[in-house]
Write a structure and sequence with these properties.
Elements (H helix, E strand, L loop, with lengths): L1 H18 L3 E9 L10 E5 L2 E4 L5 E6 L4 E5 L6 E4 L6 E4 L7 E3 L6 H16 L4 E12 L2 E12 L5 E14 L2 E3 L33 H7 L5 E9 L5 E9 L8 E9 L4 E10 L2 E6 L4 E6 L1 E9 L6 E11 L2 E9 L11 E2 L4 H8 L3 H6 L7 H6 L4 H6 L1 H4 L5 H20 L7 H6 L4
Parallel strand pairs: 1-7
Antiparallel strand pairs: 1-4, 2-3, 2-5, 5-6, 8-13, 9-10, 9-21, 10-11, 11-12, 11-22, 13-14, 14-15, 15-16, 16-19, 17-18, 19-20, 20-21
Length: 437
C-alpha cells in the first residue's frame, strides 16, 4: 500500500509539473521615490534564463509561473518574487545605507590593484568568448532604423573580435515600413564603439583615446579630478563609487571619464558609467562635396559579471548624438546557454554587410529571451522575411570604390588628428602596454 501511494504521488506530481506551461511575463521597473524608469536592471531566473530592462525600464521574459525571479540594480534593494505574483509595475527602493565620503589620492591602491588585476585577467583569459544579443537603433528626421543580431566576441575586460551569426534589420521612413536600405544602416562601422572600455587591452582604432585606466595610471598633475563615496549593498557588499573627471584643460583631446563602481573587498569592477570628450567623426557634406569633422556626444554604460573567474562584459549600452541624429547600441550577454549557429561572419569595415551575409534565423528570436524592444524599436522591427530573403543579394554588397576611397580618407584624417592633438606622456610600462595583444 505504501509503495502504491508513493508511486501515485510521484506520478501525480509529475503530471502537475507537466501541465505547467511557460508564460510570457511583462513589467516595467521604476524608482519608488521618483517614479522614473530604471533601465538595464538585471532580471535573473537561472543561468540560462534572464534578461535586462530596456531604456524605458520594460522587460519581457518567458518562464514558468512557479519560477523565482530576482531583480537587481546597483543602488537599489533587491526584489525577489514568484513569477505568477509579479506586478505589472515594479517599484525598486533605493538602498537606505548612508553614503560615506572618502578622500582619494592619486596613489590610491584600490584603483591600481583593479587595473593591474584586469590586465592580468585579460592576458590569462584572452581567448574567453561569450555569446551576445546585439541591437542598434538610429533615429534622424523622418527615418528610424533598426538592426538586431546574435553574435559572439572575446569578452574578458573588453569586447573584441566580433563575429555575427544571424541578424535582421528594418527601416521606417515617413511612417512607412521599408526593407533594408542602402542609406543609414546600409554602411556603418559603429561596432567599433563596442570595443571601448574603461580599461583597454587591445587599442586598435582607439589607440589615440585616453580612458580611465590611462588617466589614473599616468600620474600627471592636474590631469583629472577624482572623488569617492562608499556605500554598503543589502547583501553586505561594500562598494566604492569612484568618479574620475578629466580636467577641463584637456577635454579637447579624445578622453573618457566617468564613474567606477568597485567591490572594495574583492577588488572587482561591477559597473561603469562614462562619457567621451573631444570625440569627432567625419561627415560628408554633399553641398560642399567634402568631408568635415563634427563633434559628437557619447555616453556609455557597462555592467560586469564575475561568475566565470574573470571580469566579463555582462551587458553594455551606448548613445551617440549629433544635433537631430541619435544612435543607440545595446549588447546583452546570453549567459551560460550556448547556442548553435549555422553561420559565422567576422566583422570587417562594414558591420551591416556582415549581418546580411550571416543571414536571418527567426528561430533564434523565438527561442531566446532577447531584451524587450521599446515602442519606437518595435515599430521599426522588420518582420517580412520574404522581402529580406529575395533582396538579400541586392543589399549585401561590398564597399564601392568611392566608399573605399572614403575609408582611406578617414584613416588619413585620424592619423592627422593623432599627430596634431595633445599627446599625454605615459609611464614606460604604460607605453609598452599599448602594444596590440
Amino acid at each position: 500500500m505504501r509503495t502504491f501511494l508513493f508511486y501515485f504521488l510521484f506520478c501525480l506530481s509529475g503530471f502537475i509539473y507537466a501541465q505547467e506551461k511557460f508564460d510570457s511575463i511583462s513589467a516595467v521597473i521604476r524608482d519608488a521615490s521618483t517614479g522614473e524608469a530604471i533601465p538595464y536592471a538585471s532580471i535573473y531566473v537561472s543561468p540560462n534564463c534572464g534578461t535586462i530592462s530596456n531604456d524605458d525600464g520594460e522587460f519581457c521574459l518567458q518562464c514558468l509561473p512557479s519560477d523565482i525571479i530576482r531583480i537587481t540594480c546597483i543602488g537599489y534593494k533587491r526584489i525577489t518574487c514568484q513569477a505568477s505574483e509579479l506586478p505589472s509595475v515594479i517599484r525598486m527602493q533605493p538602498s537606505s545605507t548612508m553614503l560615506k565620503e572618502v578622500t582619494i589620492t592619486r596613489g590610491d591602491n584600490l584603483i591600481y590593484k583593479l587595473v593591474e588585476k584586469m590586465q592580468r585577467q585579460a592576458k590569462k583569459h584572452k581567448k574567453a568568448e561569450s555569446q551576445y544579443f546585439f541591437r542598434m537603433a538610429i533615429q534622424y528626421p523622418g527615418t528610424d532604423e533598426l538592426a538586431e543580431a546574435f553574435m559572439s566576441a572575446k569578452s574578458c575586460v573588453q569586447i573584441r573580435d566580433i563575429i555575427f551569426h544571424s541578424g535582421s534589420r528594418g527601416q521606417v521612413q515617413n511612417g512607412k515600413l521599408n526593407g533594408p536600405s542602402l542609406t543609414g544602416l546600409g554602411r556603418t562601422n559603429l561596432h567599433i564603439f563596442l570595443r571601448l572600455s574603461p580599461v583597454l587591452v587591445n587599442y586598435d582604432i582607439w589607440g589615440f583615446t585616453f580612458v580611465p585606466a590611462d588617466i589614473v595610471l599616468s600620474r600627471i598633475k592636474d590631469l583629472y579630478d577624482i572623488s569617492c563615496v562608499q556605500f554598503t549593498e543589502e547583501d553586505g557588499t561594500e562598494i566604492s563609487k569612484i568618479h574620475i573627471s578629466a580636467h577641463p584643460s584637456i577635454i579637447s583631446h579624445p578622453i573618457m571619464d566617468g564613474t567606477l563602481y568597485i567591490d572594495r573587498k574583492r577588488c572587482r569592477l561591477l559597473r561603469f558609467d562614462g562619457q567621451m570628450h573631444g570625440l569627432q567623426i567625419a561627415l560628408y557634406d554633399q553641398a560642399r562635396e567634402k568631408h568635415i569633422f563634427a563633434s559628437i556626444d557619447y555616453t556609455m554604460h557597462v555592467d560586469y559579471r564575475h561568475d566565470h573567474g574573470f571580469t566579463e562584459i555582462s551587458h553594455m549600452s551606448d548613445i551617440i548624438t549629433k544635433d537631430s541624429v541619435k544612435i543607440r547600441q545595446l549588447l546583452y550577454n546570453l549567459g551560460d546557454k550556448k547556442l548553435q549557429f549555422n553561420k559565422s561572419v567576422r566583422v570587417g569595415k562594414n558591420m551591416i554587410h556582415a549581418i546580411d551575409v550571416a543571414g536571418f534565423d527567426s528561430t533564434l528570436w523565438v527561442a531566446n529571451n532577447i531584451v524587450k524592444r521599446t515602442k519606437d524599436e518595435e515599430r521599426v522591427a522588420f518582420k517580412d522575411t520574404t522581402f529580406w530573403s529575395t533582396n538579400r543579394s541586392k543589399y549585401a554588397t561590398e564597399l564601392t570604390a568611392q566608399e573605399q576611397h572614403t575609408n582611406t580618407y578617414l584613416k588619413d584624417a585620424i592619423q592627422l588628428l593623432m599627430n596634431n592633438t595633445m599627446q599625454l606622456q605615459r609611464m614606460p610600462a604604460e607605453t609598452n602596454r599599448r602594444k596590440k595583444r
